[in-house]
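dude i think i finally got it to work??
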Amino acid sequence: MVSRFIAAMDHSGGSTGGVLERYGQEYTEADKMEKVHAMRLRMVNSPDFNNENIWGAILYQDTVTRGMVDVLKEKGIDSFLKIDSGCEDNGMLKQFPVKQMLKFATNSIGPKIYGTKMRSIVKSGSMIGAVLKQQFLIADVVCSYGLVPIIEPEIPIDHPEKAEIEQELAILLRKYLDVFNGKCILKLTPPEEPNLYHGLIDDWKVNKVVFLSGGYSTTEACNKVGLNDGVSASFSRALSEGLYAHQTTEEFNDKLKQNINMITKASE
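look at this
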C-alpha cells in the first residue's frame, strides 16, 4: 500500500545534538544517545505510530542495540539499519566496514532486520555517476546477505542546479537499475518536475520509491510528495516537527498524529 511510509529515525552521534535541541531536551555528550532513544521510543509508542500508517523505520546501530527492532516488530513495523558512516566532503560515502555492519544486521538479537540504508549527497552533476556506482556496488553486497538496500543519492534542496541534476539522475538511475541484480528501495529528494521518477516505480527491481524531506517543513514536504504519483515518504525532521520534551502525553500524541496523517494523505 503506497500510503504507508518509512520513518527515518537514524540520527547518528554527530546529528543527535541538533535533534535534541529542536526537541527541547537538555543533554550531555555522555547521555545524548540515551536521550534520543527515549524520544524515539516516545514516538514509536504513540498510538498512531502503527503499521496502518508506517511500513518501516530506519534505525541507527545504537538504537538497534537498545532493543528498538523488537518494539517495532510488536507493532508490525519492519526495521532498516543505517550502515554508512557519513559522507566525505565531495558527497561520496566514507569508507566503512560494510560486511561487519551486514553481519550485525543479520545476526542481531531478536527479529530480523529487513534492510539497510546508506545516504550519499550529490553535490554536482559530475558526481552523479560516481555516487551511483558506489551506492549500487554496496547494494549488491547488501542483497547477498538477504537484505533490501535503501539507495539514497540526496540532492540538497537548495542546490542552484537542482532541477538539472535531477534530470541526469533520473537517466543514470535507469542505467544502473538495468544492470542491478537485486531489489532495492530508492530514497530521493522531491524533484522540481513532478513525476520525474515515475518510470522507476514499476521496475520489478524497485520495491518502493520514497521521498526524503531534506529540510522542508512538514507541510512543504507533504505538498511535494502529493505532486507525484505512486511514491511515499521517508521523513525525519518533517515527521518530528513540533514535538517537544515538555509536552504532555496528549499534546505529544496529538501533534505526532497530525504529522502522520499529513504524510499518509500525501502518500495516497
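The beta strands are 5-9, 54-59, 78-82, 115-121, 148-154, 184-188, 206-211, 232-233.
im so relieved honestly
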